[in-house]
Queue: 2 jobs
Job 1
Amino acid sequence: MNAVLPSLAGLAVAMGALLAAGRDDAGANAPAPAATPSPAADPAVRARNAETFDAVWTIVRDSHWDPERVGASWDAVRDELLPKAEAAPDQDALRAVLGQALARLGQSHFAIIPGELSSAAPGAAELLEGRSGATLWFTPRAGEPAAWDAIVAAVEPGSPAESAGIAPGMRVLRIGDREPGTRLPAGDGLERYQRANTAAALASGEPGSKATWRVEPMGGEARDVEVTYAADGRPQAKFASLPPMPTELTWRHLDETERERWGAGDREIGLIAFNIWLIPVARPFDKAMDTLRAADGIVIDLRGNPGGIGAMAMGIAGHFTAEPASLGEMRTRDTTLSFTTNPRRASTSGVAVEPYAGPLAILVDDASASTTEIFAGGMQHLGRARVFGRRTAGAALPAMMTPLPNGDVFLHAFADYRLPDGTALEATGVRPDNARPYDRADYSREGDPALAEAVRWIASQRRTPRPGPKDPQTPSP
Amino acid sequence: MNTMNTTDRIARSSARTLLATAALAALLGLPAVAQDAAPAAPAAPKMPAAPALKELPVEGQKPSAKDVFAKHLEATGGKAAWEAKKSMVATGAIEIPAAQLKGAMKTTAAAPDRVAVNMELPGIGTTSQCFDGTVGWSMDPMRGPAIMGEKEVEQMKRDANFLRDLQMANDPGTAEVAGLVEFEGTPCWHVKVDGNSYLYAKDTGLMKGIRMTAATPMGDLPVTVLMEEYKDFGDVKMATRSTTKVMGQVQVMSFEAVEWNAAKDEAFAMPAEIKAMKDASKDAGAPAEKDAAAPAPKAAP
């Protein structure tokens, strides 16, 4: 497994390109670009390096939607970095140079994916992280401008974190030898997404390994707990050049305790959660809707969902829109296409139905990116959903993947994305409709303040009869 | 036991997250474009599809559109051979090289204007489009089942015209030859039909490609199709490889086998979900489906 690690150093630099917002410095967590390694002497290596750099550079020049951004300054990038790329002694050094070039764009969805990580690579499936089941969130530390507190925002039931006694609202002072709130990039643009990714990484580890977490409950004493990271048992989906991805959709009705706790009374509220926009969640979502169509309200939990196949947003949104409606537009140099919802008027068993017209809440956080933002931002803009949680990542550009001569894959945005009123989601993200931002006390008191607020909002809505037939062929979970 | 340091883990975890952030919108949101470019040809203009075609000098007089269509008909087997064809079942492959996706494809077409296209791609599943002579629909795992809007149906109906080549050779209508151009390195007669460009190789008469605007649920889209590798299937000739360029992406479709007069009606039958939607709209006395690309008014939460 460790054989892939050196290549990931290069990827981290590419991540810097994704997140550094124009800085060559990839951020505190990314390794510095290879300093001054011995230059490649092999003419074949030099030629391949140059060919790879040129492929990346040319794709950006020819497909970036803003020709001004890739004009003279992009020519200068080539002049400066092509010789460095050519001289790179190994793949990692080459990726570091490519990362430097892409960092100049300061936009999401530009990255080099090492060939070792693609779905075709042997052993790619074994690279999955072990999970603690805790979700961390970085919030600025009061009175200390450059410091952050890591707060537990959620704990999955039955997870190692729960077994260890970790609960929402706790402050995490240390994980192993790392103080989580240090060495984080400041900034309110794509840096938020970088912090969210760092938080996710800190809450995971080698499957089966253990780490000591020092946690501090609200108003309590700090203590050490031991977390054993569990193997990720979720089903994996493969798609194109992506490595195998854990892909899961769950749905249920809120139980009586939850309804009572959050003031929903006898309202029947459905909760659907999925972690990525890949095909294996599409049909289960349709089937969930077969039953939830009769609910008094529906909550879709997309926290931590980093995106996936953009076209799926139109299908999922169609369950909630009676007429075709634009979620937003993608704009290339010469074409504008609308992400138009596809109203879903048939159940999975072929019964005519109406799209769900009841209250819809969408939960997001700073790790919700890309297609999740297209969906949540579009539905919010249409006035068809209320969004609760934390502001999304602001990494929302349509992208595609192209194989490179060196065996890597180039992920590159090729279009801008805007809401129907022209508002960009890139760097900005979707701002939730919460009454106010949640703080540590909210997490400690409510457990899940976003879900709590969503449920209270649904309960406040006028109850209307929804005649959509419950599909008799679809069992409840 | 933990063999990695924090930076490594962050990099690894970030990598997976990064990979999932691709929107892949155009890659997969446009499955309908020019899938059946082989025998028939699509429609309706609007946007510039690609850089201008390079004009070449014409020696002598330009042929008429009727001449060009007649030469194409002759080059692909002739009037009698095509008149004997009432339906087609073609099987082959579809590939999106950049995404490293390759799957199976089947096109069934029948006179006068029915067509069904089915694709099976790994990681995506089955995507279908069909026009049964009256209703057009699509089924794909991303958008779900959909009945096509007026504009898409109009295009689909034109695409599905099984007798188009015969008809155009007989009556070219408003088609006109704009000139001689270079298309993909080949001198071609540039025939304009309804604002779209059809390119016929000057020497062989075979159709070399199309530049058109395709109606999709996401809006109009400029598309270029390159048709190559003509082969005999019985007594007629067909392009077995068509390369579609759309929004900077390339899709390659290749036919391996073609059966004539073997299409079955079931190929054009509505799936249960489409039938339910159609029946419901009929019951409601709804007019023809609206164009999907038209945005709805803002609704109150």
Job 2
Amino acid sequence: MHILIAEDDTFLLRVYSAELQKAGYRVTSADDGEKVLAMAREEIPDLILLDILMPKKNGFEVLEEMRKDEKLAKTPVIVLTSLEREEDAKHAKKLGANDYFIKSDMDLDNLIFLIRTLAPPAKAAKKRHSNT
Amino acid sequence: MTNLEQYRGIFLQDAAESFRKIRAAIVVLHKDPTNADAIFEILRLFHSMKSSSAMMGFEKISKSCAIKEKLFREVQSGQVLLSKAVLDDIAAVAAAIEGELK
């Protein structure tokens, strides 16, 4: 079960990584939009936790490119951002985000619960099996 | 229930590093008030601090960071021009927040 965290805030990245690892996930991370796309293309994750305000490419650009790439078109993406404007949420959904949350509104326990619903262990195991 | 207290040390360390970067960007902006990289760096750091301080329960600090983030969005879009007084205010607010976290 592989989660790619796209987050340029080192503190939040450490917290998310530690808590997701405790929950049994394998975690990789990238701190700018270009790295996110490169890493996702190299090893397709089971889910991407995507920040919006990042250097080089922002989360909207990453999402747009992902959805045009047939290998990443269906990878679940949870946008977790501090952008609170409704139009940003609508834009992310339009680009193909599965969910959009404001960081300060989402506690870690709920986040992990949500990730489990979008990337359940059985699904990840099945995907790995079908790739062999 | 996640115990966030275990992350307090990391948060304080990270906040100290963020304020060091904000101070460095302010120095750049004193010389060149239109430097887009320095403007984005300050915006990004206040934006990040807004979330991380809220997560750790520092609501007042989170709100101060949100106000400064908004200001720098206006600077980025050209609605507000950076003056020495504005930069001094940013430095003072950053120092005050840093002081509260010590």
